[in-house]
Amino acid sequence: MQSAVLKGQSIYRRVRETGINSNYWYPLAWADQLQPNQVIPVTVWQQTLALYRDHSGQIYALEDACPHKGVELHKGEVHGSNLTCPYHGWEFNGAGECVSIPYFPADQKLPCAQARSYPTQEKYGIIWGFPGEPGLASQQLPAIPEYNSDEWFMVRIPGEFQAHFSICNENTMDVFHGFLHKELQGWFDPVLLSLKQTESDVYADYQVSYRGILTKLMGLGKAGNGVTTRTVSIHYQYPHYHSSLEGVSSLYLMRLPMGSTLTRSFSMLFLKLPLPGWLLRGRLSKLLEKAVLHQIFLKFLHQDVEMMESEQRSYLANPQRNYVEVNPAIIALQRVIIGQYERFMQQSDRSLNPPTEIASDCNFELVQDSKCR
Questions:
Q1: I want to staple 28 with a disulfide (CB 3.0 to 4.6 A). Which of 108, 129, 183, 228 is the partner?
Q2: pLDDT (tens digit, 9 = 90+) per residue, 241-279?
């Protein structure tokens, strides 16, 4: 079958070395994994945070280094609304201010010791953190209208990949890799229908075909040959994804880039299943969620992880190797990732120059060609 290609484009090697734009909200942990009076370490692009929930349920995040001796604060204890360093007992409030030193007299002035604090919020069953400039944290989280809706059945899909976040993001945008999942009766015959890029977004529509277990599970109509064809719409809104299948499924992928070769994913899949309501709610819904996750979607994810981590290993073995990319949606995605990082670096340096425009508001012509260019 012919593939849609973008003339004269090869894959950006430098995207594999690109950092993140920190001025966005990133998922830190599933909310139910952090209990009151508990503290855990979380890494956001080589920044480690001590994330804790106080006795009343409020969430705070401090730099995971005591400003006294540098000891990791996540090894400490939560006292009321404060976090206590395990080494000398210095106590810090949610704003990172030192409020107590146990061996100081009550009337002695405390030293100016400040741990950096990070804005946090809890929504959609996820704890979010803002690792960038706090004054920019007023921006909105991704909208998930299906959350808590009786019309949709939700499946949480956790993931962790030994790969750069650009590799993980390209896997999501690359609907042409249905070949990988052929033994799982995945999608086939993909066609890129439309593509648009702005400085922070990529919109792509693909036509794909299904047969077998996925067709039956999602209640898709089928033709006489048992094949059904639908449109998959993907919206990458830096740094997260939303993908939908014509009102049948809706998938949100929230990425946590932890380092140059480690990415965590907090994903929520919403399905409209042809099942009775009593099965989709209450205690039975948890059993159904577990069955759908382990028997179907984790099998797809494990195959993807193997490919992403293989791609990362090959890059590390030879960072100068050239690659050829024939999916214009991947090129658009790489431009956004690089552009966002360059924009962040310019903001951080307080440059007087305006941000570099990286193919802003581009519409791509899809060229049908089966030859390598």
A1: 129
A2: 999 998 789 999 999 999 999 999 999 999 887 665 656
